[in-house]
Amino acid sequence: MSQNQTGTNGLTYSQAGVDIDAGNELVNRIKPMVKATRRPGADSDIGGFGGLFDLKGAGFKDPILVAANDGVGTKLKIAIDTNVHAGVGIDLVAMCVNDLIVQGAEPLFFLDYFATGALDVDMASDVVAGIAEGCKISGAALIGGETAEMPGMYAAGDYDLAGFAVGAAERGELLPSKDVGEGDILLGLASSGVHSNGFSLVRKIMELNGLRWSDKAPFDTNKTLGEALMEPTRIYVKPLLAAIKETGGIKALAHITGGGLPENLPRVLPEGISARIDLDAVSCPGVFGWLAQAGGIEQFEMLRTFNCGVGMVVAVAADKVDAVRQVLEREGETVITLGALEAAQDDREQVVFDGSLGFAK
Questions:
Q1: What is the pLDDT of residues 75-90, one digit of tens each?
Q2: Which of 98, 201, 214, 257 is the most buried (most CB within 10 A)?
């Protein structure tokens, strides 16, 4: 029998590119972060074969579960190039939990998937720290995840992320409500920047203009381009939950991600109803004006690629607008009156734009 067969001088998993010890170190390092996200219904430690959640312990009586999953897209390339990783962890949570709240669901728990060629414990810890922070902001418990080390699948230093979130709402309380219709008012909640969509175009603009992530941001001289563009996605969960519960006036919500206002608003509108949007009311952050100018991008292309300053749209009963606005502003949101719903006309799109964004020529 050869030495390899006996194991005396045989290969190890580490020699094949997978470091089990590094994986164990990562688990130990992130345990306090995970523990800090505990909430009613979730109080078990990570390390089991599955995460546990007690719906009754969370206070639900007759819940409907709502699930969402997403990633961060090519914003990850900026994180890798700038070696700043915590922000994309927040982005990962935001992209999932914001999709739960638009259906009226309270986020309950979150799981992540982190895949890389060779595990860098410091980098992975930074990512998970961001994920834990996003979970705390949204009220979700981080109850588990998976770290996959796959040599040969990823270039040195590269990694990928996926997130999975589950929320719940009591039966009969899901959004959009059945009475969404003509006369409802649309409120817009300000975004924190580009959020997590359109970064393939952002990176193309950077390339064509010969810019580096370390260059000063033309739209924010206090930051580099990398720092400014890595601003995490805003998480709207707790302010919206408060407005839903306190006012009863929210009829529908639309998370403005890839596809922008033209593609995301129709997802919550009933047949025969269109949204009229007043672009003059939008206070568009400087980053979008810079992207439009540096890339020579037309207004409609901007609107269907980026959020252009509006990260969430809230459809509100006309007689509840003041109450909803008051709660949202109390909870820290910047709220604008974006437009209204009206009867659709056959020859028009379901989203009709009036006016123009501040950077439009």
A1: 999 999 999 999 999 9
A2: 98
